[in-house]
Please model this.
Amino acid sequence: MKINKDKLGNYVFLADWAGSDKSHALAAWASTFLEADIEIPENPKDRIDALIDHILSSQKRTRSVQGLITWLMDPSHDPHTSPFRASYFQFITTTDIATHIQFLKHSVAMKGENAESARYKELKEDKFYMPKDWLEYGREGKELYEQLIEHTQWGNEMYHHAISKLTALGMPKARAKETARYFKTYNSQLNSSKVFSFDGLMQVYFKRREEKGAQREISDILDMMIEEVRNIPGNPFQYSLKAFGL
Model:
């Protein structure tokens, strides 16, 4: 797979994942399988299928995996979302600083987040994001777009110049790097690793929709994340996505 790295755009790809609809169902059936008299397979990869097969074959009143997941989110009762935490997604994102900060506001929903630091290294790529919808507003919109590119490029040049100059003047390089970044503009992009459970991803996704007043950029990134999950080979989260209306 080739990373879809759109120049001047934000992007995301799924680096790692674990779990499935079965993981969510098994979490909901926790008390059932703990009472089961079953020999656990040696290979951990085979255990969830063995447990699910045992539960479905030994309990007449048990719903199917699809039926259980649908019931968990049935609007006729309060949704039970905790079983949807039994999964793991690690996304690698490249976003503008504004969008990066918005994700940090959801630190409870995210299992983990780590971004490249301009304090510990000099940012060599000088990547940045441009709001392409400016181009929809005629000649003046295009002029502003081009001026923002020039402004951003100037800031990037000054960032590297300041590190070099301040270091030559005797400032410790670590201090030069962490202060020269003030020349970086708000549309500068950072690489980041973001970890969600399925439930955490759903929480952020539905809170940050553009139609609910969220900024377009974070809404777009979340749409990309959902597509990455949807496109996992074998569609292991198809029932969970459908249960949440996706």
The longest strand covers residues 88-96. The CA atoms of residues 61 and 222 lie 37 Å apart. The chain has two domains: 11-115+189-243, 132-183. Residues 11-115+189-243 form a domain with the Gyrase A; domain 2 fold (CATH 3.30.1360.170).
